[in-house]
Write a structure and sequence with these properties.
The protein contains nine helices and 21 strands. The protein is an alpha+beta fold. Residues 137-156, 246-285 are annotated as: Disordered.
Length: 366
């Protein structure tokens, strides 16, 4: 079975790869080929996309390092480098361990200087554990049928080449895709794909994706802000073992003294903190204004979520952000190197890889 059709968790491994394709809305494959360094044969961009689509991998493990320099202000309640809180991933440098043995057996550990947080999926059991807080949240989830994440019923029946061709035709307008030689990631030779937006209005300048030369699994993603020499966001393997981990890795038993919250309890329903984050959010689907790299998502914050006026943490966060206003109303602006986000006082959340003016304009589109 293919990695990207029947192993959705592997797509989640390097979430930016999927996010880039979805956000970009388009790409034109360059004719350049990756140079044959590190013993790898020449591959064109279109050939590499077929390789990724056709990759077969039943399991893997490895160490991942993430670096984020998104230009965000210091935010209350968000840890920085060395923190084991999952919210800390928005800034600083972090080390994670990953074990994967199929969509029903996944373990991700965020290693901090003073603790560890683990997300563990084992069959129908899903755990989120914090050693620092001595807390764990557990819920039961449906068993995967192996087809979740399929890009579409028709695409499932296509050959890898047909699926890649269909994807390229569907996303032609807004992105330039080419190869950019090879690299060594986690001690293994890899090809590099380079994605560039055609629209200069995007805050993203380019995305560089390393694809393992042997397994064809993406092993590193680097996102560069426009006109910036260094990546604003990078996530990649520093060690990579393409063999299936033992089943014992996915067995989780809360250590003695752990405060366990079962999904469905009043605590899990009402919490707006980390213990209440395993459940799906309720609310209408966001409306998308524009296309490609400059598209903007406009969503209504669910009533009663407490996100706007509820928790003290959110009130402190809003106070840390600059207040802005216009014909669209007023709100608080979060501006980074790769994206801008606006939370209006009437409960609308607006996000895009664009400058704030584009967010304001999206609010006026009906």
């Amino acid at each position: 079975m293919t990695v990207f059709q029947h192993r959705p968790t592997l797509r989640w491994l390097v979430p930016l790869l999927t996010a880039v394709v979805l956000a970009a809305g388009g790409s034109a494959v360059g004719v350049l080929s990756a140079t044959a360094r590190d013993g790898l044969p020449h591959r064109s961009a279109s050939q590499l996309l077929v390789d990724v689509q056709n990759a077969r991998l039943e399991g893997l493990s490895g160490t991942i390092v993430q670096n984020a320099d998104l230009g965000l202000p210091s935010l209350p309640g968000v840890g920085g480098a060395g923190s084991s809180d999952m919210s800390s991933l928005v800034s600083g440098s972090h080390t994670l361990r990953l074990w994967y043995a199929g969509p029903d057996r996944v373990r991700l550990a965020l290693l901090g200087s003073l603790g560890e947080s683990d997300l563990v999926r084992n069959g129908t059991d899903l755990w989120l554990w914090s050693s620092k807080d001595k807390s764990a949240q557990h819920r039961t989830v449906p068993r995967s049928d192996g087809a979740a994440g399929d890009p579409g019923g028709a695409a499932a029946a296509m050959t890898p080449q047909q699926a890649a061709d269909a994807a390229l035709k569907a996303i032609t307008p807004s992105t330039k895709v080419s190869t950019d030689g090879t690299a060594v990631v986690a001690g293994r030779p890899a090809y590099e794909l380079l994605l560039r937006p055609r629209d200069a209005g995007s805050l993203i300048g380019s995305v560089r994706i390393a694809i393992d030369g042997r397994t064809h699994v993406p092993t590193r993603v680097q996102v560069f802000a426009a006109n910036a020499p260094d990546p604003a966001f990078e996530v990649g393997f520093t060690s990579f073992d393409p063999t299936t981990p033992p089943a014992s890795v996915f067995t989780f038993n809360p250590p003695p003294g752990t405060d366990v919250t079962e999904s469905g309890s009043s605590h899990a329903k009402d919490s707006t903190g980390p213990r209440g984050q395993l459940g799906p959010a309720n609310g209408a689907e966001p409306r998308v204004v524009g296309t490609g790299w400059t598209s903007v998502a406009v969503a209504k914050v669910p009533a009663g979520s407490g996100a706007v006026t509820g928790s003290p943490t959110m009130r402190t966060l809003l106070q840390a952000l600059p207040k802005v206003s216009g014909s669209w109303g007023s709100g608080h602006l979060l501006r980074g190197t790769l994206f801008s986000a606006l939370l209006t006082d009437d409960g609308r959340l607006v996000v895009g890889a664009v400058a704030p003016d584009a967010l304001y304009a999206a609010l006026t589109v009906r």
